[in-house]
Amino acid sequence: MAISFLPTMMADAVTDISPTLLKQKGIRLLMLDFDNTLVPYTTSVPTVAVSDWLKAMIQSEIEVCVVSNSRKERVQIFCREYGLHCITHAKKPFPKGIRQCLQEYGFTPSECALAGDQIYTDTLGANAQGVHSILVKAIHNHNIWLKLRHVAELPWIGLASKRRIHS
Fold it and tell me: Of 42, 54, 61, 62, which sits with the fewest C-beta atoms within 10 Å of its C-beta?
């Protein structure tokens, strides 16, 4: 697959991604990054909006799986609470976690999307595997390293600005 830093779509928040939009794009499986996509790095408690969105997404025809680079147990605890399957130690942008998810669900890459807050892990990893990439704004860049990473992503965000979805 081609190496590309441009997301297929962009959203202000994960809650802007609707089952209807995904179905229109032929997407049957939504992979979700965890930290700064569903919850901030500093907590495992989602906002009411994210919690309600997750419950609605799970009840839709779209399959949902968390694919996270994290090694922390809080990801697994969160996923158990919501009845979500999760793959940790995913090593994005490398193919390990994304390929594992594709194999477990049996979908083709074109039937899948990965939503996450980082271009250099989530977007690049999805694009390299032929999966639709959905860049969402980070929930909270709470330290200098996250802020600097965001600055490094700004050129790609600018180039992909016409790919923004609106809720």
Answer: 61
Whole-angstrom distance, CA of residue 25 vs CA of residue 111: 8
Domains and CATH numbers, the chain: 9-163 (3.40.50.1000)
pLDDT in tens, 11-63: 999 999 999 999 999 999 999 999 999 999 888 899 999 999 999 999 999 99
Structure-token match 């690049």, residue found: 124
Q: In the structure, what pLDDT confidence band is assigned to residue 167 with cuts at 50, 70 and 90?
A: low
The 10s digit of each residue's pLDDT in 102-159 is 999 999 999 999 999 999 999 999 999 999 999 999 887 667 777 777 777 877 777 7
- Structure token pair of residue 155: 């050129």
Tokens of 159: 């180039």
Q: Cα 79 from chain centroid? A: 14
